[in-house]
Amino acid sequence: MILVTRKLTISILLSCFFVCLLFLPTRSMAQGNLLIYPKRVVFEGPKRSQELSLSNSGKDTARYVISIVQIRMRDDGSFETISQPDSSQHFADKNFRFFPRNVVLAPNEAQTVKIQLAKVNELEPGEYRSHLYFRAELEKDPLGQEKATRDTSAISVRLVPVFGISIPIIIRVGESTMDMSLSKISFQLQKDSTPTITMDINRSGNMSVYGDVSFDYISLQGKTTRVGLVKGLSVYTPNTRRHLRLSLDKNPEIDYHKGSLHIVFTDLSARTIKVAQEQILLD
After folding, report:
1. pLDDT tens, 20-38?
2. 148 domain-assigned
């Protein structure tokens, strides 16, 4: 009996997309080797155009394709893409244009993307939001380059990560209203003694919330120690709350069985900075 084995070469391409990172420590946003500043664009008042700065911090030339996506925020801060707006949600994609739509950046090279408003006089009062999505395009072999000879009797797996990042484009029309509060605050020491806090950030009004949350431990003697910080946290319309769970610093000099925690959410999205704060006793 003669067995005839057919030689197969299988190339599996896996594309990994990473969209809207929430807790970045800087005011610029990075994914892969792409740096974007600022990481959100808000139009309100007379401003009709803004610019984004893109830069390539990698060692290879990269091409990025820019498109528009619509995103829903869940209560836990995660995102999902949608095609139709939720109730009380308004897309902004028909009211701005941007150029260029693709960018090729050499190592350490930078370029700007210009965003301009369009037909905003036709909009009803409220907040409109869509997201610009920057996707790294797969690198193609240069013309004329010969492909390397492969062993066709083997099975090959090629993993090619495709990096992407999105930033919100927000248009505010008319009077902006917003209020916020903190609720359902719960503190626990886990079995491994990790201090953990859960809470809700509540939003009301017609505009999104964006800011920083700080956590300070106050001892019985009145000494204050920073034990946690979350930067760039958002609660997008139409969501009315955002649930947050955070592990605080495991500091051996802090006794989490007594004293108190002072929690402050500082909103940075409006012209006038607003603050919501609460203090809880530890026992």
Report:
1. 333 333 345 544 589 999 9
2. no
